[in-house]
């Protein structure tokens, strides 16, 4: 009967440990959200674990939207403390938060990320404007003052100064925060500049600017930048959309295109000369400050000059440091929750 | 016997044939058989080719992860920098962050430049210190905090070389690519060459790959599988402790005791169905029940183990029932015949004979669970975890990673150095699976009885 005894005792042990585990409180900071912010958050978490007596925070990816949703699930040890986000929080998120009792959320903007257009290192160089991208990828473009279905097959059709190379673009899929910035800063800007926006408005078509062509020239990449890079390696003729930090880690394989004549660098993004950039955020649940050990210290460490400053490891990885970092530091020290979205 | 007469007329004179000469039909049949054999060989050939290509690509790309470039440096643990107050109190020393340790490494390079006549035109000690992984200052700080009495001494350290320098000696980075690379310059590579000639820089077997925790994108060279291996181990423990007794108990009852009626039929069909449910479904179930309802922590091996238990149970039940069935009824009849109770029959005679089959099935189920990724993604095991979980049972509730998820995680990182590490993790995972499957085969060979 020894087998029965072993089986019973095994059950007893697991039952006891299960209750013990639920009773013990969480002592590590838990973070989830944007895969763009993920590398920065892991760099900070690693340094935090090394330099403080608190455990290393646990950082998960999953996407900006998923992170904010998890943050708004409620207050308590079974919910995350920080949501990383590569786009600003939405009113719908704030409403969910309020409904679930998460009333005070601190918005921390820790820097900027450039979005770059890059092609194979051995191919020709590109110099783009937003209009070029609009004329290359939009479903309908202006030709001789009228809206027609996009006739352009090569970059040289779009702009005589671009190389005579077939248009093929790998752009982030719609679930990415990067796509929002691409739509807003490149496609919408190009729509405006080519006069298509006015034509759409005249025709009463509100969504016209956002419609991209569906004939296989513009390819949505739902994975991350490593997938875009792999696709680019297989199609050296294509142009891909990357984050500045990803490009800076792969400069031996990619050559970057200029936008409006500006080369994307941390400096040109910081100065605002390079047009396609976005702020990076993380959102802290204020109710957990002082409850989860190390949370306040982690947030302060993240925005400290040592980490997020222009000479810190985050900038070395590709973050464009926030010129108003001192203000952010003050806000974090005072634990100021964010006000309503303007 | 009337059939015979009614169906056929009397057979006519048969054509004379010989067994020695093949007629057209025989030839056709033989040719068909030959073709079939060829198809068979072709099918096996394709399968073997696929396997060889896969293994070769993983081995070629991944084996370099087990070797790493190290730089040996003598570091003067400067009291002026590490213990500014000169009190020697551990609290004061702990105030110096890893950033404060970086100058010590620069200083060491300065000494090397002067003493060994090494150096590249126009290179400052600061750029030279970039040859060493950022892990270096962390390593120094750990050492000093553990041995504060050695402040003021000169201690020799084996530092990890930076990812790009390591890549240079593995052929991933070349002088030409360094020209274009913003993270390394050709001058730094020249310096690395000089250090190698001086015997300061060596490439050696990298145990750290198996024992270190994961690392951030700033230092791919320091990333290891330690936490993932422990996490996988804990999950397998949970699966073994839960799935084996539950599975065996269920099978014994169903096979030996349960009445054969509609209910047991339904249960049987459902167990077979459960074995075919896609694993991601168990992940969703785990998220809903164990995390959201029961309130168990995210990223914890206990939750992963519970989810994998659910997934492995049908496999174990099916294997156990098959091996119970293969025990001949005569054994049961004999035991019952000499007066053993039903339970005595099962536990004294049937179960011991079925045990090798049960164990084989369990190990194969565990091997399947070890390689499972999808359900773990949903319960937070894909997180960046750097702290090792504690000893069980409490450690089961600490955050951890898992081997297959670590592979997934590393393939998404931007730094090219993570490619070899992901492949190295695949090799490690394959070795574990190979060991488990070998144990299963040995158990079967040695203990299985055939009747």
Automatic annotation (TrEMBL), chain A:
SUPFAM superfamilies: Periplasmic binding protein-like II. Pfam families: PBP_like_2. Keywords: Signal. Coiled coil: none annotated. The keyword Signal applies. Transmembrane segments: none annotated. Residues 1-20 form the signal peptide. Residues 19-306 form the PBP domain. It comes from the Bacteria. This is Phosphate ABC transporter substrate-binding protein, PhoT family.
UniProtKB/TrEMBL annotation, chain B:
Residues 229-440 form the ABC transmembrane type-1 domain. Its main location: membrane. InterPro entries: DUF3333 (IPR024573), MetI-like (IPR000515), MetI-like_sf (IPR035906), Phosphate_PstA (IPR005672). It holds the Pfam family BPD_transp_1. It is a multi-pass membrane protein. It is found in: Cell inner membrane; Cell membrane. Signal peptide: none annotated. NCBIfam families: 3a0107s02c (TIGR00974). This is Phosphate transport system permease protein PstA. It comes from Loktanella salsilacus.
